[in-house]
């Protein structure tokens, strides 16, 4: 595959010495969806701003489609569509004019049929003659997405695109992202909705305090870091975990009626068989057994738990 976005040792230091990006290196392939996760202030928006030319990196190199974002700014920027966090639209302009103007800004020829298709996919066609200040917050977010798609970008950045919007828009967004991926568009998504990353991303990147902690295929990450819980419902409650079971590091929940055993799904042996044998030896009768798989959210929280956050 061909790298569409190449980031090498990117750094960003603001006035006053705050280092928002600390040598980030990352290669994003053409046509893939990368979800960038991180707590508030982790550096997600700063990184996107540097790639899109909104902020200038103070070190390293960033290339989009082979074009340096500093030296070849216009060529690099023409390949990029950005849906920002903040809604910043001309309040008295009509939806249709807003989207068509953005396409013209990027020097693309007039294509009303293409813009109509975008507005219809975003359920905006009936609002095309409405002024921005007449729209709901969710509709304004849709206009931002339409603007970002208006010039047929090869790389689309979605910076918290569905934060605070309705479920319908979120579903529309997922569908549009799937269509764009099928057409070969490279998509970088930042989100606080972990289920979005888990549902649509090919790879997951985790950033904290300006450093990229890991980038890995989603399924591989879930397998490598995912753990399962075995929840054992007991016939009779226990006051404490019996000494015979101490080696399994069990926890006792639900007023002593559930034993919880956490184990690594990638381990050669889970220890479950041995645990069941020891429970029988201790005359502990179980009523039911269930398992629970760690979600991406659980993994994310574990990864950033000890790093803290800075404002960025």
From TrEMBL:
GO MF, any single term: ATP hydrolysis activity
Name this polypeptide is given: ABC transporter ATP-binding protein
UniProt xrefs under PANTHER family: ABC TRANSPORTER ATP-BINDING PROTEIN
Keywords tagged on the record: ATP-binding, Nucleotide-binding, Transport
Membrane-spanning intervals of the chain: none
The ABC transporter domain, residue ranges: 5-234
SMART domains: AAA
Species of origin: Roseivivax marinus
Pfam families, per the entry: ABC_tran
